[in-house]
Amino acid sequence: MADSLLELLSPYLETPQPNDATASLYLNRLSTLSLDALQTTEPQSLAQSSHSTLLSLQALSNRSHRAFITSADHLSTLRSSIPQLASEAQQLRDAIPKLDEQAVSFSTKYSKITDNAALERRKKAVQLARNVDRLSDILELPSLLSTAVSAASANPGVSAASTTYSSALDLHAHIKRLQTLYPESPLIQDVVSQAEDAMKEMTTNLIAGLRSQNLRLAAGVRTVGWLRRVAPDLESLQSQGATGTGEGALGAIFLVCRLAHLVSTLEALDPLRELADQETQRRTHGKDQSDTWSGGQQTDRYLKRYIEIFREQSFAIVSLYKNIFSSEQSDSEPAVSGLGPAEAHQAKSPSARPHDPLQRLPSALATFPMHLVRLLTDTMRAYLPNVRDRSSRESLLTQLLYCAASLGRLGGDFSMILTELSGEEDISYDWEDVMRKHRALAGRLEQLTSRVPVH
């Protein structure tokens, strides 16, 4: 039915399209309408639909007119652009084989040339571009090392310092490995130089840590262990000087640092020492001879405090030294202890060692107690005559004996050296009485301890 109607209406249509699906659908709909509907309602419906479509087109053109214009421009040039694109693509496809031939010819020609500066620069640039991340990591190593050392010095806590110093030592070991792998690289040499500066700062901080006020055994062992890793040259000095105790120069550095702390602690008594110096001036100028037993109170206070600090610090220094370095001294003799009696005697005999015209230097601890005793005796010799009260002087001498006995438990008894202090007749009598009382007290204590039953 729709086809028949379309044939009848085709002379009245401007562009007849026999295969138009929309027209076929509309004609099928018309065949279902009555004659009255075709004359009355259908024209109105068509007019309404036409008006609605016109309004939609107007709104769309107002809203998207720029896109329409651009699409129209592109559509107008599309017929010429597509053939041009096809022609250029064909030219590119034809030029690829020629380009490949030229690249192969260039590679074959210049691959055998080794002295071409341009090619060398290009190779270096390409290699640098490939390894830029690794190079940036290597360049950051000195700054990381310096940061770790600074953080350890800023946070002197045990746990924080242990972590940061361990990290710094690991970074330094990694830098040394890089130096071993690339000994001729200027970049690695620069990184190593900056790392050495940071390790010198770390060595300075560690040595300064040995001068801290309350140095414990664990902290001392840890600090000496770090110094061995940071400055191994200090240990190599033992072949030039020390008697094979395994301490190298670290033992001397430890004793010097602790001695510096002792001296700084004693310098805190300067206000009392100034008062004692005033009494020394009055005694030497003869201004206080009228009452010979009334002077020396300030000197007595100064000497008591001085001996108390000296006794505590000297015992701590020597005991710390023995506990830190005694294990190394015992470890340095396994080869002799593992031999038989004849071999051990031959190894220990002087004839078994090469002839040395110069005697080896003793260990640092061998002469250190003598320096401490000299420091004490010089002070006592200078200020003890100021104390004119007999009981005060006996108290000081007794305190000296206890100090000598305390250091004597570590092998540094200097009680016999104290007899040199009796320069005056009164002091010599006091010294004899104090020694007699001290020996009597020691004898009674020994008797009491011998009577205690052992369970």
Automatic annotation (TrEMBL):
- Renumbered to this chain, the signal peptide range is none
Alphabetical GO CC annotations of the entry are: Golgi membrane; Golgi transport complex
Family stated for the protein in its record: Belongs to the COG8 family.
Its GO biological process annotations read: intra-Golgi vesicle-mediated transport; protein transport
Q: Which residues form a coiled coil?
A: none
Region feature (Disordered): 277-296, 332-359
Predominantly, its location class is Golgi
Protein name listed in UniProt = Conserved oligomeric Golgi complex subunit 8
UniProt KW Transferase keyword: no
